[in-house]
Amino acid sequence: MDVILVINSGSSSLKFALYSVEANANDALLTGVVSGIGVNPELKAKMNGEVLNNQEPFKSIPNDANHEWLIKELLNRLHTKYAQFKPIAVGHRMVHGGIHFTEPTLITDKSLQQLKALIPLAPLHQPHSIVAIEAMAKHEPDLLQIACFDTSFHRTQSKIEQMFAIPKALTDEGIIRYGFHGLSYEYIASVLPTYLGDKADGRVLVAHLGNGTSMCAMVNRKSVSSTMGFSTLEGLVMGTRCGLLDAGVILHLIKQKGMNVDEVSKMLYKESGLLGISGISSDMRDLENSDHPDAKQAINMFCHRAKEEIGNLTAVMNGLDAIIFTAGIGENSVMVREKICDPLAWLGVKIDDDRNATGKGKISADESKVKVFVIPTDEEATIANATRSFL
Ligand code: AMP
Asked: What φ, ψ does residue 353 adopt, rounded to 5°?
């Protein structure tokens, strides 16, 4: 059976999924993730709902396995143990597409060079995707490879929405607000009519609340604004990233506290957010289970910043018809959804406590002016669809 292989290559993880080439085959045939790369890699995989973790070939990954080794091994294991699936194309998640990649793109020597040139814009993410592309090309040169970008979805935003108030020459050079999580937003945009009917094309705010968090304001299912900007640091409180921060703080850290660039970068990307505020964990589940006042403060600040940004994005859209919660926290945390929505009564938001507790589909009360939904996201399905369109 001809299949599409989807690869989502992160700094310490590699997710993969197989999809049929048939149109609208949105359910993955096989999914897996290797986490803890470089430290203590662990592989989890599923086929038809069955967990394969402890079965051959989903066992034993050496501790020094890197992304290249994993790609080679994945292809090997697919060929030897899952020969019924024959990959004919690979879709890669690519965090950054810069200004020019506004849609999924076929990887050629030329486009690969252009993607490499974007590494300085996403130094923590882009290199891993490029390693995966090169490893695929080396081991399976005949496979069609497609890059799908987290930034593309936001290129429909107005010029001023994408600009910072900095000297024009820097804006022209590409120092702009790119916005991220676009593959997730694109998936949500594609399923909105199922949940919202005619209102899908109205003013919809999508809250992607995971380890990375952002919000996107959509009108006509197109991005008009997003809380993430030039990097994946801007906007909401995240697991370990700071979100909104006065640029003056960075100057202060460098000038007055003598921190160097790597130290500041580590602090902003790895030691801030929920982890930094609480000093306990970056994981929302740990904070919800803790009685420590700093854990409560971290949750409160997370929800407060979300509320602030909902106000901001509502103003950009001149009103609000629906809020969608998605990703790990958005899909699973009853408490976070409640703490974000309850103070928005003035805006016409009212959630139904029983519906919120189930966390499936509509969670707003029938009389709520603004409809509120929980919709599970599926970035891999978006990539599979995009890749399919090249076949
Ligand atoms: P993601 O990056 O989308 O995988 O989301 C990861 C985040 O989702 C982590 O902060 C988890 O703590 C959070 N999460 C997952 N399940 C739950 C849950 N049942 N309740 C609260 N937070 C959760």
From this structure: -60, -40
Decide which of 88, 115, 149 is a domain's last residue. Answer: 149
Q: In the chain, where do the E strands start and end?
A: 2-9, 14-20, 30-35, 42-47, 50-51, 86-94, 105-106, 144-149, 203-209, 213-219, 222-226, 322-326, 361-362, 371-374
Quick check: CB of 340 below 6 Å from ligand 1? Answer: no
Question: Quick check: CB of 10 below 6 Å from ligand 1?
Answer: no
Distance 327 CA to ligand 1 centre (A): 7
Residue 211 C-alpha to ligand 1 middle, in angstroms? 7
Within-domain flag for 270 = yes
210 lines ligand 1 (CB under 6 A): yes
Catalytic residue at 150?
yes
78-137 tens-digit pLDDT? 898 889 999 999 999 999 999 999 999 999 999 999 999 999 998 888 999 999 999 999
One domain, residues 345 and 214: yes
Residue of 64, 109, 150, 353 with catalytic role: 150
Is 118 in the same domain as 227?
Answer: no
Q: What is the pLDDT of residue 54?
A: 59
The CATH number for 119's domain is 3.30.420.40
Rounded distance between C-alpha atoms, residue 85 and residue 65, angstroms: 24
* Residue 76 structural domain: 2-149
The span from the CA of 101 to the CA of 99, in Å, is 6
Ligand 1 contact via 333 beta carbon (within 6 Å): yes
Q: Report CA(282)–ligand 1 centroid distance (Å).
A: 10
Q: Is there a domain that residue 186 lies in? A: no
My answer on whether 8 and 142 are in the same domain is yes
Mutate to test the pocket of ligand 1, among 125, 241, 333, 340 (most ligand atoms within 8 A of CB): 333
Q: Kindly state whether residue 286 falls inside one of the protein's structural domains.
A: yes
Note the pTM of the prediction, 2 decimals.
0.94
Residues 26 and 130 both lie in one domain: yes
Residue 261 lies inside a defined structural domain of this protein: yes
Determine contact, residues 340/306, Cβ cutoff 8 Å. Answer: yes
